[in-house]
Amino acid sequence: MSIHKMIALHPQTGGDPNEPLATAARHAMFCAEMCTSCADACSAEEMDMRQCIRTCLDCADVCTAAARLAVRRTGQNDEAVRAMLEACVRACEICAEECARHDHGHCRLCAEMCRECASDCRAALQAA
Predict the structure, then answer these.
(1) If 0-12 CB within 10 Å is exposed, 13-18 middle and 19+ buried, where does residue 108 land?
(2) Which of 67, 89, 99, 122 could cysteine-pair with 107, CB 3.0–4.6 Å?
(3) Among candidates 63, 55, 57, which has minimal Cα distance to 97?
(4) Domain 18-127 has CATH 1.20.1270.360
């Protein structure tokens, strides 16, 4: 199943899923889950991981909101979509920086996903 196909089937897209935006939405959804999982793993670590947990959960919420706005094709609210993509880029950058401070496999993986998501959101902003 593909969000790209779902968007392409929407009556108002004319079959054009806006590939960069669809990819950003897809990766934002994945990133939200990775950040949530990382926060959960951080809560099981013996060291104080409060800041990483907070950063991951904030990033997950922003990514979820960005993905939800990006897949809505009825009508237009380009300004809000751009604002959410910009917020997603910044939240992902902040989360990647925080996770990169820790030598845990889950943090490394989360940081990598956040960097990918930020890159995809930047590409969607350039294509808009």
Answers:
(1) middle
(2) 99
(3) 55
(4) yes
Alpha-carbon distance 98 to 29, whole Å?
20
Structure tokens at 40: 């959960």
Q: What is the dihedral of CA 98, 31, 35, 118, to 10 degrees?
A: 20
Quick one: which of 70, 40, 61 has its CA closest to 52?
40
Residue 45 in tokens: 């670590």
pLDDT tens-digit profile of 93-124? 999 999 999 999 999 999 999 999 999 999 99
Which burial class, exposed, middle or buried, applies to 54 when counting CB atoms under 10 A from its CB (0-12, 13-18, 19+)? middle
Q: Which two tokens stand for residue 15?
A: 């079959």
Question: Which position has the token pair 């990647």?
Answer: 96
What pTM does this model have? 0.92
Query: Residue 70, Cβ neighbours under 10 Å: how many?
Result: 26
> How far apart (Å, rounded) are the C-alpha atoms in residues 55 and 105?
17
